[in-house]
Amino acid sequence: MCRIILARGDFDSDAMVNAALAMSTGRTADHEKPEQTHAHGWGAVWRDPEAEGGLGVHRDVRSLAESVEESPLRSVRSDFLAIHVRHATLEHHRGPDFTHPLERMNSDPAWYFMHNGYLPTVHRRLGLLASTFDTAEYFQYIVPGEGSRLDPDETLARLRSIPPGGLAANAVAVNRERAYVIHWSPEENPFPRYFGMFRLNLPNSLVIASEIIPELSPAAEWEPLKPEQILEIDLDSEWY
């Protein structure tokens, strides 16, 4: 299972990195699951007009705490940034092939994908006999092979048709034009607080995170995302 934070607008990248660190080390944990730390790799994607494809990407198989200072994240200046820290559900799902964001480069535009949850049955919707990596199968299932948009109604219908047995499908899907936040869990969810997501509206920015981060703003200013919500964020428009 994982933690995600996303920011859009005029924000301090250092503050977002520190918020991700707080979640990864358990300092802001307030949920039912025993996992307090998320140390099995991390990654980030941000808007960078000078990068190929318009997005900068970084991944590291180490924990965020031990490797962030070797990364470019502290110096990123952007109007969009998403960070993902992992606690691998299965021990053999560790290493570079499993570190988010996953990417799909053979489409135009390229897509990047971060997932918090466990969907061991989604492979059946692809006609596969067995699952190799649920996040990769979820990415293939939920993000269209062509185009830059997710249709909210179609996406929710696809989520509802996943066979029972999963825990959550929370995700961030990003291309150079748009980012999508998917907030969805099956009705039978034993960990509703863990798989909640929260929205913080600041004067010049939007923050969405897997946990309330008091260092960014008091808890009363964070709003829970609605269940079964697909939030579209335009990356090309001005942010006010």
TrEMBL record:
It comes from the Bacteria. Keywords: Glutamine amidotransferase. SUPFAM superfamilies: N-terminal nucleophile aminohydrolases (Ntn hydrolases). It holds the Pfam family GATase_4. Signal peptide: none annotated. Residues 2-236 form the Glutamine amidotransferase type-2 domain. The keyword Chaperone does not apply. This is Glutamine amidotransferase type-2 domain-containing protein. It comes from Streptomyces sviceus (strain ATCC 29083 / DSM 924 / JCM 4929 / NBRC 13980 / NCIMB 11184 / NRRL 5439 / UC 5370).
